[in-house]
Amino acid sequence: MSGMAIGTAVIEAGPTSGAKGQARLALQHGKRLFLIESLVASQEWARRFAEHPGTTVVRSAAEILPYIERLVSPARELSVS
Question: Does the pLDDT value for residue 14 go beyond 70?
């Protein structure tokens, strides 16, 4: 799923969760990864992932939307009516 997405947001995930796996795959696919600040504070794997280029740490899910809008805006400019 992460390969088809614009980005992946991880709100909560343990060290062996599928969400952690999706986060890893998002980085491998060159996709934007969003991690909630509280997750980074509580999980060692999230702290490591936060150091990777392409990862953005946010305080809430509401902070993600401006990033997504910037990622998709060039596609809107190129569309043909």
Answer: yes
Residue 76: exposure state from Cβ atoms within 10 A (0-12, 13-18, ≥19): exposed
> CA 66: distance to chain centroid?
13
Q: Scan for tokens 């401006």, then name that residue.
A: 66
DSSP for 44-73, written as a single string: HHHHHHHTSTTEEEESSGGGHHHHHHHHHH
In this predicted structure, the answer to whether residue 21 has a pLDDT above a threshold of 90 is yes
Q: What is the pLDDT of residues 39-76, one digit of tens each?
A: 999 999 999 999 999 999 999 888 999 888 887 776 55
Radius of gyration of the chain (CA): 13
Note the Cα 24 to chain centre separation in Å. Answer: 10
Q: Please work out, in degrees rounded to the nearest 5, the angle formed at the alpha carbon of residue 46 by the alpha carbons of 3 and 53.
A: 60
